[in-house]
Specification:
Layout: E1 9-15, H1 19-30, E2 36-42, H2 49-56, E3 61-64, H3 70-81, E4 86-90, E5 94-96, H4 100-110, E6 116-122, H5 138-145, H6 148-151, H7 153-163, E7 174-176, E8 183-187, H8 202-210, E9 214-224, H9 233-251, H10 253-277
Parallel strand pairs: 1-2, 1-4, 2-3, 6-9
Antiparallel strand pairs: 4-8, 5-9, 6-8, 7-9
Length: 294
């Protein structure tokens, strides 16, 4: 059978200040045997990312923004511009193995009951990253962002094991509730991110809205240089902002208020450390959540 020449998959990449990593990502996509539409949304990067795309990748559709639209806003811009049946949200700090996209598309074609799928993300040294999780319960959020988790370490361990599927080594396919925002493939008609969230928890929010399983595909491999664009004190501040927005939306105002109050000691301690070190832009990185754009 002759493979299709028209792309059925739009790849949306939201970029901020990761020019060299973005170049490697685009090279890996252009080498794919599966034809794809590539859309780069550049969030006003000061490092020349947009100029690099224009000069080196004329086949890529570049949507250069005048201001930073953040992860969710930028992805929604790319999704709105996409023309294919399927959309893959992909981080710019990734490199896609030659057969990964074909495997993901084949799975989605064969399993219409699934909301989407993701690939196995690996570090540059080949170690598998811990991605995919259960939905973030209020207990999990309290255990990991307040002193309650320190006071009750056994409770926290049990919640974390349940949340991160502690019995699974990411070495085989599995149904999961939440897939990483750094690699999310869904049908175009179904995918839209909540722009009240800027960088964090959009995949958790999406899972609660679509109410259908996702599939982790161990055979589809993507190298991920995790947290290339979010190692900063600003990212930490946004993380805690988005944490409260997510909690209010899915667990209510009371849960959000309690989380705000109990998380302040940790947040203020990190803020004090940042001020004392004076390393603006190089401070404590945001905690790990099945995370987007990092």
């Amino acid at each position: 059978m002759t493979p299709p020449t028209e792309p059925r998959l739009s790849v949306v990449i939201v970029n901020y200040n990761t020019r060299d990593l973005l170049r490697a990502c685009l090279m890996s996509l252009e080498a794919q045997p599966t034809p794809v539409e590539i859309i780069v949304v550049d969030n006003a990067s000061p490092d020349g990312s947009a100029d690099m795309v224009r000069a080196e990748f004329p086949g890529v559709r570049l949507l250069a923004q005048k201001i930073n639209m953040w992860f969710c806003g930028g992805n929604n811009i790319g999704i709105a511009a996409a023309t294919c049946d399927y959309v893959l949200l992909l981080n710019p700090d990734t490199e896609v193995a030659p057969d990964a996209l074909g495997q993901m598309l084949a799975f989605m074609d064969a399993h219409p009951q699934y909301a989407g799928c993701t690939a196995r993300l690996v570090y540059p040294d080949g170690q598998t990253q811990r991605t995919c999780s259960a939905e973030a319960t209020s207990g999990y959020l309290y255990a990991n962002h307040t002193p309650l988790g320190w006071l009750r370490p056994g409770w926290r361990r049990r919640l974390n094991a349940r949340h991160w599927y502690g019995d699974w080594q990411r070495d085989h396919d599995r149904d999961v509730a939440v897939v990483p925002g750094s690699c999310t493939l869904m049908r175009r008609a179904d995918i839209h991110l909540d722009e009240s969230l800027l960088l964090y928890f959009p995949e958790d929010d999406l899972a609660r809205r679509v109410r259908a399983p996702f599939r982790f595909l161990a055979g589809a491999r993507i190298t991920h240089h995790e947290q290339a664009a979010t190692r900063s004190w600003l990212a930490t501040r946004i993380y805690y902002r988005d944490l409260l927005v997510y909690t209010r939306k899915h667990h209510g105002w009371l849960a959000m208020a309690g989380l705000w109050l109990l998380s302040r000691p940790l947040y203020w301690a990190m803020a004090l450390k940042q001020r004392l070190t004076g390393r603006a832009g190089r401070g404590t990185s945001a905690p790990n959540s099945a995370i987007s754009q990092n």
